[in-house]
Structure formats: C-alpha cells, structure tokens
C-alpha cells in the first residue's frame, strides 16, 4: 500500500492532475448521457439547457480531462526522462488549480447560466446571444484555462532547456529540441558521411512533447485573446451598454479563431500521443527508435504543416480571398 | 455493371490493397526483428512501397484538383455570367426569399447572393433524398456568393448549416427551390 506521505512533490502533483482530470471525465460522461437521453425523448434537459450542456461538454472534456491528464503525465515524464529536476513544482501546483478553476467556471457558465455559443463561437453569436453574466463567466473560465496552459508550457520549456555549468550551449539544445539534428544526419547520409549527431541532446519523445507544446502555446494565445475580447463585451453588457459587433470582422475573426482551435487537435492529440508512444517504445524495447533521424526531422516538418491544417475551414467561406481558397 | 456489383468489386479491391500493405509491413518487420539487421532486398521493398505511396498521393491530388467544382469556378468566377441570380437575406434566424420564389431550370448557371443582418449562418441546399447539394457560410458584413448548376430536376430544401444558437433548427425551408427539367414549362 502506497502512503501519500511517502510520495515526493512531483509524484503528488502528478497524481493531483490525474485525479482532477478523472473527476472532470466523470462529469463529461454524465453530460453525455443526459444529452443522449434527450435524443431518445427522455426529458432530462429543456431545449435551451440542452445547447448549454452541448457547449460545456467539449470544454470540460478537452481542457478538464484530456489536457490535465496529459499535463500530469508530462510533468512526471519530462523531468524523469531528461534526468533533470522539474523547473518549478510550485508552478505545477498552481497550474492544476488554475486549470480546475477555469474548467469549473466554464461549466458553471453553461450548466447554470446557459451560455450556449458552442466551442465554435462564431462571431458575433457569443456577444449577441448571451447574457452578460454567462458571457463573462465563460470568458473568465477560458482565460484561466489558457493561463494554466501557458504555465504548463513555460514549466516544461524551462525544464528541458535548464543547463548546469559545463552543459552544452542553449543553441545546441534548441536545435535538437526542434529535431533539426535529424535533418543534419539525413543530409550527411545522402553524402555518404557518418552521422554528425550520434547521441542527440534532446531525446526523441521530448522532441515530440516540445514540438506539441509549441502548437499548444499558439493555441492558448489565440483562445486567450478571444476570451479577453469577450470579457470586454461582457463588462459593458453588465453595465447596460451594448458595444457594436462590427468592431470585429467575422471572417478575419473566424480565420484566426479556427487557426488557433485546430492546433489543439494537432499539438495535443496527434503529437503528444506520438511522443508518449515513442517514449513507451523506447522503454519497452530498451532500444532507440528505428529511423530516428527521419522521425526527428518529420516532427519539425509536421510543426510547419500543422499551421496550415486549419485551411480546410476556408472551403466553406465563399468570401475568402481567392488565393486563400486555392 | 450495376451499382451493387461495383460496390462489391470496390470492397474486394480495398480489402486486397489493405492485405498487401499489411503483408509487406509484417514481412519487413519480421525480417528486421528476427535477424537484427535488414537485407538490401527488404529495404528495397519497404522504401519502394513508401515511394509508391508518395507518388500516388501527389499524382492523385494533381489529377483530381481540377475536378472539384469550386476550383474551376473560383478561378473563372469573374468570367462566368449566370443565367439566373437570387438574393436572399438571413436575420433573427429566418431566411427571406426573393419575391416570386426560387425557380430554376436544370443545367442553368445560378448565382445565390446571401447576406446576414446579424449572426453567422450557413446556407445549405438539400436534395429531396436528404443529400446535401452544396453549402456555404453566411457571414454578416459580407456578400456571400456561390455559383451552382443543378443537374437533377426536383424540389430542394434550404437549411442553415452553421450553428447560430438554439434557434438554428428552425431555419429550414422545405421544398423552397424548384428545379425544372429541360422540357418542363
């Protein structure tokens, strides 16, 4: 039997992330069942409430469950695998608190106050179709979640790039973290020369996690900025004033918003899962990943490609400039 | 060849393709793991297959790009003169159709100009079978235009295809577009 008193701070904070994530998972399961019941004509939710739950469900599932589960795992794996101390356990503790508070507030905004603009948030539905209280709470919750994500990314970056006296320079670590050393080795092999980097400074799974984290930062910046805009509108709404919705162009807003939102799928789902499995494969087999140079180089290529994934949304917008659509 | 047998042939083709791919991977991985090193023959099979996939993917996209209707129409948009043009508006979760309704002839070039006075909506046109004919987003502050040629005569319905709040489901106009066949008057 493991005693909680015997756990070190890193183990404790990791378990906190996992436990809170599983609580949010339970919540999304209940929401899912309630919505399912409505679909088969069991009147558990009123029509208006149904769309509000539909709004809370993916937010709680993505940020409360998936993100927190991944964060907890990486807070433990990255220091363990890089053989470094986590940069700040205090920030990690603050991180789960901010994430849990943010997710809870978003849930409240929908489940109790009926915010129902969905995760799509097409402009200007959030500011026209919501009350000041529900919009303000939703925006505050999203902002807290994004701050939590930025804390996580900062903590991981600081851990990966932390150097002791005598360690290699930061530039070498950055080149390795981006997987660029894979390109160098491939280029050398084409020229019939031996690998330049035999022992990469940053292990492959950490390259994947680092690369996923870049998309996650960009995503947090975009969604956080949108939340600030919502907060401004909510503030004036609560004061009884209505700001014009024409201040933002729906097309430019949509392009930016979806660009950020799609990075969640790529950074979190695709690359974090790849990083986890690179790690597991190396631990299980005790060997380096096969074709490691290609895998490292591919992670960098995929980083650039991921910034264009959102472009499929352009297909349904006839008003996009022709060059964007082509 | 009727539709059923075509579907059956396609399934057999896809199943065979998947089996070949899986067999190649098993063949390669087995050779890699049992001997601890890879022979040149296995490498040739593996990299040959990867090269084939890359070539097919690039060729497929290049050859089919022109077949997607909007690509051709978008490039030539300025030159296309529609046979018929309709202007619609969406406001407070309702579509307002032009006076006289929406009646077109099969094969005509039709332009729909849809505007929104408040929210972001969708403009989707659906066949009687329920299949979607086309759709576009309707953004406020923009003139959203789409050019279309109806190939089949019949009645078509309009539905908003973008979530604009709980009231979106009421944005459905059944049989609101009539497409006449070439001979009909």
Describe this structure in words.
The complex is a heterodimer of chains A (326) and B (185). Chain A is an all-alpha fold and 326 residues long. Helix content of chain A is 71%, strand content 0%. Chain A contains eleven helices and no strands. In chain A, helix 1 runs parallel beside helix 3. Chain A is globular. Chain A starts with 8 loop residues before the first helix and ends with a helix. The model of chain A has no long low-confidence stretch (mean pLDDT 90). By secondary structure, chain B is α+β, with helices and mostly antiparallel strands. Chain B has two domains: 3-67; 82-180, Cupredoxins -  blue copper proteins (Immunoglobulin-like, Sandwich). Helices cover 35% and strands 31% of the residues of chain B. Chain B contains three helices and nine strands, in the order αααβββββββββ. In chain B, the strands form two sheets. Chain B has a five-stranded mixed β-sheet, with no helix packed on it. Chain B has a four-stranded mixed β-sheet with strand order 2-1-4-7, with no helix packed on it. In chain B, a hairpin with a 2-residue loop joins strand 1 (84-91) and strand 2. The model of chain B has no long low-confidence stretch (mean pLDDT 86). The chains are: A mainly alpha (326), B alpha+beta (185).
């Amino acid at each position: 039997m493991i005693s909680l008193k015997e756990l070190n701070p890193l183990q404790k904070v990791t378990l906190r992330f996992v436990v809170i994530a599983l609580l949010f998972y339970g919540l999304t399961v209940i929401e899912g069942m309630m919505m399912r019941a409505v679909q088969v004509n069991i009147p558990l939710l009123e029509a208006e409430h149904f769309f509000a739950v539909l709004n809370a469900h993916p937010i709680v599932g993505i940020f409360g469950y998936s993100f927190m589960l991944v964060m907890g795992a990486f807070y433990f794996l990255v220091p363990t695998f890089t053989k470094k101390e986590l940069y700040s356990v205090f920030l990690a503790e603050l991180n789960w608190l901010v994430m849990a508070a943010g997710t809870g507030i978003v849930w409240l905004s929908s489940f109790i106050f009926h915010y129902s603009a969905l995760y799509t948030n097409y402009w200007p539905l959030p500011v026209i179709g919501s009350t000041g209280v529900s919009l303000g709470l939703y925006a505050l919750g999203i902002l807290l979640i994004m701050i939590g994500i930025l804390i996580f990314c900062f903590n991981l970056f600081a851990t990966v790039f932390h150097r002791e006296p005598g360690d290699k320079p930061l530039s070498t670590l950055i080149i390795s973290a981006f997987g660029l050393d894979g390109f160098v080795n491939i280029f050398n092999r084409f020229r019939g020369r031996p690998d330049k980097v035999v022992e990469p400074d940053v292990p492959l799974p950490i390259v994947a996690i680092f690369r996923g984290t870049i998309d996650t930062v960009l995503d947090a910046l975009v969604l956080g900025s949108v939340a600030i805009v919502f907060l401004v509108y909510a503030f004036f709404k609560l004061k009884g004033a209505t700001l014009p919705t024409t201040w933002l162009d729906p097309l430019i807003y949509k392009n930016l918003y979806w660009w950020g939102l799609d990075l969640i799928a790529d950074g979190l789902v695709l690359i974090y899962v790849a990083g986890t499995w690179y790690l597991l494969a190396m631990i299980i087999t005790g060997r380096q990943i096969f074709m490691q140079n290609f895998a490292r180089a591919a992670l960098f290529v995929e980083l650039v490609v991921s910034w264009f994934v959102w472009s499929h949304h352009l297909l349904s917008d006839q008003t996009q400039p022709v060059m964007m659509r082509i | 060849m009727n539709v059923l047998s075509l579907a059956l042939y396609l399934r057999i083709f896809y199943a065979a393709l998947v089996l070949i791919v899986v067999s190649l991977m098993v063949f390669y991985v087995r050779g890699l793991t049992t001997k601890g090193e890879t022979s040149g023959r296995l490498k040739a099979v593996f990299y040959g297959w990867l090269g084939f996939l890359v070539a097919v993917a690039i060729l497929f996209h290049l050859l089919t790009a022109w077949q997607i209707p909007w690509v051709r129409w978008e490039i030539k948009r300025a030159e296309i003169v529609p046979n018929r043009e309709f202007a619609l508006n969406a406001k407070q979760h309702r579509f307002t159709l032009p006076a006289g309704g929406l009646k077109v002839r099969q094969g005509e070039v039709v332009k729909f100009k849809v505007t929104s006075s408040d929210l972001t909506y969708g403009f989707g046109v659906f066949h009687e079978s329920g299949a979607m004919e086309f759709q576009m987003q309707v953004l406020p502050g923009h003139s959203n235009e789409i050019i279309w040629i109806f190939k089949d005569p019949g009645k078509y319905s309009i539905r908003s295809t973008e979530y604009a709040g709980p009231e979106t489901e009421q944005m459905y106009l059944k049989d609101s577009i009539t497409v006449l066949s070439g001979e009909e008057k």
